[in-house]
């Protein structure tokens, strides 16, 4: 093969590996944030005050961790974002009830 093809293949491999790493860091960041929000929701009594939102956030975070264990970082990030959204909805419902 010519040198030009080798350079092209190396650049392609570099970028594909670089972008796959981005999902890892994004997923772990979102999972940590979702876990913190869920803990805050629990501290405010979310289990009893907003059980639907709390349970949804908990299950989405659980799914995110399962996907992360299988190294499916894109789906892990998506589930973590959904967990954060459910926790946010729980916080909004708690504020309405006050």
Task: Work out the count of structural domains.
Answer: 1
Question: Which class do the helix and strand fractions yield?
Answer: mainly alpha
In DSSP terms (H or I, runs of 4 or more residues), the helix count works out at 4
- Kindly, what is the distance between the CA atoms of the first and last residues, rounded to a whole number of angstroms? 71 Å
**Topology, number of strands:** 0
- Succession of helices and strands: HHHH
Mean pLDDT: 89
The share of residues in helices is: over 70%
Note the main sheet. none
Rg from Cα: 19 Å
Tell me the quaternary state: single chain
State which percent range the strand residues make up: under 5%
Core attributes:
98 residues, rod-shaped, mainly alpha
Summarize the structure.
With 98 residues, the chain is mostly helical. It has helices at residues 3-43, 46-49, 51-69, 73-97.
Description:
The protein has 98 residues and is mainly alpha-helical. The chain has one domain (20-97). The protein has 4 helices and no strands. It has helices spanning 3-43, 46-49, 51-69, 73-97. The mean pLDDT is 89.
């Amino acid at each position: 093969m010519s040198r030009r093809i080798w350079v092209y293949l190396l650049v392609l491999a570099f970028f594909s590996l670089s972008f796959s790493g981005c999902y890892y860091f994004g997923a772990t960041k979102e999972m940590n944030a979702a876990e913190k929000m869920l803990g805050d929701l629990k501290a405010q009594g979310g289990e009893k005050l907003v059980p639907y939102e709390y349970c949804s956030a908990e299950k989405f975070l659980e799914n995110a961790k399962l996907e992360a264990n299988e190294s499916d970082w894109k789906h892990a990030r998506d589930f973590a974002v959904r967990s954060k959204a459910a926790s946010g909805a729980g916080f909004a419902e708690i504020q309405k009830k006050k």
